[in-house]
């Protein structure tokens, strides 16, 4: 074997997954078609839940000057996301190139191997592993691993080679995306609906503006080549009457509102993550952020399988947990596209949604959906998502805890991607129940630093947290704790 896991694709999802796998002890090789990072800004931030995922791995200090925005939107209709506790519209002004650089440095520090200029061309899997063929400057190479993950984008060659279905809706709209220079554009931060479509403009740096241009009624071009700046300038002039042809562009791209999802996220020893598993209209930085969360969900589970301690069926929960999240992502981005990009026929929908957003419960619902903070997984057994403690199946919110080593944040406890048992009542019985899992689960005796922090744990003597930050058990019964430990961390160790 060349590695325990091969990842195809060195974008944010693939790099995050590489780091997660290394934290779990799996050896990783990442192969990437491009000889070097593009350096393009593309995505300009990430959602609240993705930011929490980075915080759980200690990565936030690597994003200097990071800012979040309380004001967000749904389909271009603006509202305050902080109506939901802990929510915001996400980190803003972080170019995708910076996110990729941070994640690549982190993955390399952890021991991942990244091979650029290696283009995946084919695969063959058997009961023991997966062999892939890659094209390099030195000719064809074969690599073998126990598992293969396709994190290689919306056109995913891995997905196609492995025979995954990818159903959904075809593109109905085409859009241009560019960082233009020397154009001195009027800001249109949330986009401006015009007779012929929609345009958006936002300053990125001195003399540089991010623009989007979408012409209504123009069939999306079935293209593989990068559009020229002249095409973007012509579309901009048709829509706004403004001539930007005298300027230039740092880079230009195009995208559509095609919406598709893989029917399964795992076929044998081949798995999909990020855009390889789901594509949609970009809205609210959800694409990059969902890919990051795919990686965090998959990484510890796949590493556990490689390491040999995974309980039966653990790897299958990657699909059962993340596929519904992807389906909901596709639903909300399609809805936003109709509201934001539709013509006059969508006016009644916009008017209705404008009325509904005046209701705080609607704001909380939409903020939770777009931020990713409302995700709740089924943790199995009698204490599934319809019963048990309110935290069960949800992400552990950021709280300050008093421990024997001083005050620590709940996120800090997850830096090593281990499971964590919070002993909130200094309960010897709970600590004793978890002792046989000490190689996989860190037990921390802690109390909430503030009354508001304590309220979220009310009724729980202990809280069991998975490496991805989701609560697998919360309560006081040692027998139920043992069941939760066995369900997610395998059988007790034989000491």
Task: Describe, in plain words, how this protein is organized in 3D.
With 495 residues, this protein is of the alpha+beta class. The protein folds into three domains: 278 residues, 3-Layer(bba) Sandwich (FAD/NAD(P)-binding domain), CATH 3.50.50; 83 residues, Alpha-Beta Plaits (2-Layer Sandwich), CATH 3.30.70; 90 residues, Glutaredoxin (3-Layer(aba) Sandwich). It has twelve helices and 27 strands. The strands form six sheets. Strands 1, 2, 8, 9, 10, 11, 19 and 20 form an eight-stranded mixed sheet that branches. Strands 23-22-25-24-26-27 form a six-stranded mixed sheet. Strand 1, helix 1 and strand 2 form a beta-alpha-beta unit. Helix 1 packs parallel to helix 3 and helix 2 runs parallel beside helix 6. The protein is globular. The two termini are 30 Å apart. 46% of the residues are buried.
Which helices and strands occur, and which strands form pairs?
Elements: E1 3-8, H1 12-23, E2 28-32, E3 45-46, H2 48-56, E4 67-68, E5 71-74, E6 77-80, E7 91-92, H3 96-109, E8 113-116, E9 119-125, E10 130-136, E11 139-150, H4 157-162, E12 166-169, E13 174-181, E14 188-194, E15 197-205, E16 208-215, H5 229-240, E17 248-256, E18 259-262, E19 266-267, E20 270-272, E21 278-279, H6 286-307, H7 316-341, H8 347-356, H9 360-371, E22 400-403, E23 406-409, E24 419-423, H10 428-434, E25 441-448, H11 451-455, E26 462-465, E27 471-475, H12 478-489
Parallel strand pairs: 1-2, 1-11, 2-8, 11-20, 24-25
Antiparallel strand pairs: 3-7, 4-7, 5-6, 9-10, 10-11, 12-18, 13-16, 13-17, 14-15, 15-16, 18-21, 19-20, 22-23, 22-25, 24-26, 26-27
Protein name: Putative oxygenase
Organism: Streptomyces tubercidicus
Keywords: FAD, Flavoprotein
